[in-house]
Amino acid sequence: MVLPKHIAIIMDGNGRWAQEKGLPRIAGHQQGVKTVRKVVEQCSALGVRFLTLYAFSSENWQRPDVEVESLMTLLGHYLSTELPLMEEQQIRFRVIGDLEKLPQQIRALLMQTIDSTADHAGLTLTLALSYGSRDEILRAITAVAADLDCGKLKKGQISEQLFSGYLDTAGIPDPDLLIRTSGEMRISNFLLWQLAYTELYFCPCFWPDFDAQQLQLALDDYATRCRRFGAISS
Ligand code: IPE
Ligand code: IPE
Ligand code: MG
User: Fold this and answer.
1) In the chain, is it the N or the C terminus that has fewer CB atoms within a 10 Å radius of its CB?
2) Which ligand ends up closest to the CA of 59?
């Protein structure tokens, strides 16, 4: 079976999962963290090389303060408990997004986790935090402009490959498979540049209900896809 090298996931539907059960939205986020653990373990065990999870978008800052604060608390808790598993499974941790906007304490935990896992050779787990693709592209363009100004870069050198290196995802190959849960069929400002030729898979279940079987269904579906990249299949 063809296994995607890089899976990206828009983990959506935590709020509605909770709402359906008469629980506060945060209960959905708590349950969602459990799904994250399971999916990370499964991808790692299967031999997937890169897993990128959309955890908090640049637009999610518009949510009520209490929800944003609870999400940051959950994230802090996740980061401070996950290191042993990352050690055991040799998971390399990365983040993409505008980290400047995150609370100082969270930033410190993120840097610590990135540093302690930097030499791990297993799955690269990337969390998208305070991430918006348009914001990422603008930050990359600003960095390119600065390098042009100071002469580090010449106009003729700008290529798709070079520009990719200015994005937060530098060094990570484009996703092969994008999964979005909760039945919404949109990209919501996630990896717009990187998803150019990614296979899309939409799953109706809410993120807290996503499990090993659901992931396997997505992988089975991916294995049937014929990726042509604009060419003619041989
Ligand atoms: C996804 O679940 C998690 C985040 C965006 C942080 P939602 O919180 O968007 O849940 P719904 O879409 O409202 O159900
Ligand atoms: C996308 O979900 C962001 C994350 C999953 C982190 P949203 O719930 O924020 O997206 P919209 O608002 O439905 O497009
Ligand atoms: Mg949502």
Assistant:
1) C
2) 2
Annotated domain spans of the chain: 6-132+174-223
| Single pTM value for the model | 0.98
Residues catalogued as catalytic: 12, 60
Q: Are 164 and 91 in contact (CB under 8 A)?
A: no
DSSP for residue 63: S
DSSP assigned state of 49? S
Kindly give the distance from the C-alpha atom of residue 233 to the centroid of ligand 1, in angstroms, as a whole number: 38
Tell me how far apart the alpha carbons of residues 6 and 123 are, in angstroms, rounded to a whole number. 10
SS3 67: helix
Task: Give dist(CA 9, CA 182) in Å, integer.
Answer: 12
Residues near ion ligand 3 (Cβ under 5 Å): 12
**CA–centroid distance, residue 176 to ligand 1 (Å):** 23
Domain 6-132+174-223 CATH (choose: 3.20.20.100, 3.30.470.20, 3.40.1180.10, 3.40.630.30): 3.40.1180.10
- Interval 118-127: pLDDT, tens: 999 999 999 9
